[in-house]
Design brief:
By secondary structure, the chain is of the alpha/beta class. The chain is built from twelve helices and 15 strands. β12 (224-227), α9 (234-247) and β13 form a beta-alpha-beta unit. α2 (40-56) crosses α7 (163-169) and α4 (98-108) crosses α5. The protein is globular, with a radius of gyration of 20 Å.
Length: 318
């Protein structure tokens, strides 16, 4: 253990927040997806174990690790494992292909890429252009092995590892105690006005944004915060997962926004809060009313833009 590592994480980071929550309320549910859930204690243990495996794979303070993953429990575990190591977490839009994918990965210069097996093909097409990548960690998803062409190893230079094996076989890594203003996450803009731009966020930023958001909206233990948006977007990452962590609540992650499945997912997750953006409220509003429109326990929906017909929305959906 170096002088920069300790069993006690640095205050003001998501690593410290998770450790505190796992000790104070270990059996409360932290994460929920359609595939299952994790308590705070389980998430803490898996993140610490994966951090040990990732460190053996070459990740450490300042190492960029890119994630090409759909929303999943495993993606959140990878994120918190990287935070524990002081590595830079780079969640990438899974829809990017070709030159746009090369653009963001050349900016990030990841040494490691973690990829869902059903989205390997776009990565396989560009790996030869990405000299920084040395290790590929594959997350096996249901049906993924037959749905995608595996990413080949250019000139045999890539080490291929299995994410499940790394989580299950890792030794708990101590928390890195760097500065809480060190780089923690690199988020990319959506690229609507040009190529995507990198936004580098600190450990303190991630923690404080989640804490402030939870405090201002009055999130509390017992809340279930539902988001159908991807984890490479701040709404789901910082303003849902970290906000839930701050409040001792549950973050419920959908796979993607679907108008036909939206309220069914809200009910299945027992959500009390959800977020919206863009046209999603309008899309839901335009669907035919049903007797189930008020069959939920949602008390708050937050987002932008706020429609002029919001009062009618509240009357319809309760």
């Amino acid at each position: 253990m170096t002088g920069a590592e300790t069993a006690t994480p640095r205050p003001g980071t998501i690593t410290a927040m998770l450790a505190e929550r796992a000790e104070a309320d270990p059996d409360a549910t932290f994460l929920r997806t359609a595939d299952g859930g994790l308590t705070y204690a389980e998430a803490q243990a898996k993140a610490a174990a994966l951090a040990g495996s990732l460190r053996r794979a070459g990740a450490g303070p300042g190492t960029a690790v890119a994630l090409l993953m759909h929303n999943s429990l495993e993606q959140v575990i990878v994120w918190f494992a990287l935070a524990r190591l002081g590595a830079v977490h780079v969640p990438v839009n899974t829809a990017l292909v070709g030159a746009r994918l090369v653009h963001v990965l050349r900016i990030a210069e990841p040494a490691i890429v973690v990829v869902d097996d059903d989205v390997q093909a776009p990565l396989a097409d560009v790996l030869a252009e990405l000299e920084s990548v040395r290790t590929l960690i594959v997350h096996r998803t249901p049906g993924g092995a037959t749905a995608s062409r595996p990413a080949a190893s250019p000139a045999g230079r890539l080490e291929r590892l299995d994410l499940t094996d790394l989580i299950e076989g890792g030794d708990h890594a101590p928390a890195h105690r760097g500065d809480d203003l060190d780089d923690a996450t690199m988020l990319f803009t959506s690229g609507t006005t040009g190529v995507s731009k990198a936004c580098v966020l600190s450990h303190r930023y991630l923690a404080r944004q989640g804490q402030i958001h939870a405090a201002r909206f009055g999130f509390r233990a017992g809340d279930v915060l539902y988001s159908p948006f991807p984890l490479f977007h701040i709404d789901t990452a910082t303003l849902t997962v970290v906000a839930a962590l701050s409040a001792g609540a549950t973050a419920a992650l959908g796979r993607r926004f679907s108008a036909s499945r939206f309220w069914d997912e809200v009910r299945a997750f027992d959500a009390s809060v959800f977020n919206f953006m863009g046209a999603t409220l309008s899309i839901l509003w335009k669907r035919d009313p049903t007797p189930a429109d008020r069959d939920h326990r949602v008390r708050l929906a937050w987002g932008v833009p706020m429609p002029e017909w919001r009062d009618a929305w509240e009357r319809r959906f309760g």
